Amino acid sequence: MFYIQKRLEISAAHQLFLDYESKCNRLHGHNWIVTIFCRSKELNHNGMVIDFTHIKEKIHKRLDHQFLNDIMNVSTTAENIAKWVCDELGEKCYRVEVQESEGNIAIYERD
Question: Which of 6, 23, 51, 61 counts the highest number of beta carbons within 10 A?
Fold first, then answer.
């Protein structure tokens, strides 16, 4: 099995709509740290699991300096962002970690 890991920093805004009082209900932003893990039993014809540049184009290009609520059809919690990134990258992606702020990390891992 071959494994790769790609770390991205994404500056983006979002707003949550929680059913309790929270400062996160107001529009705000983060410098998200997104760590992506991919794997494959075999390398592609270029000798890669997936090109790091393709990951950056597919995720960073779409999310950086954006309002995440306009892009994702789910509540933009760190947990949902992690799953969204994993789904966008397809079956080779098996784990995504989203650090919203220091000490606050959500992880999504495929079964």
Answer: 6
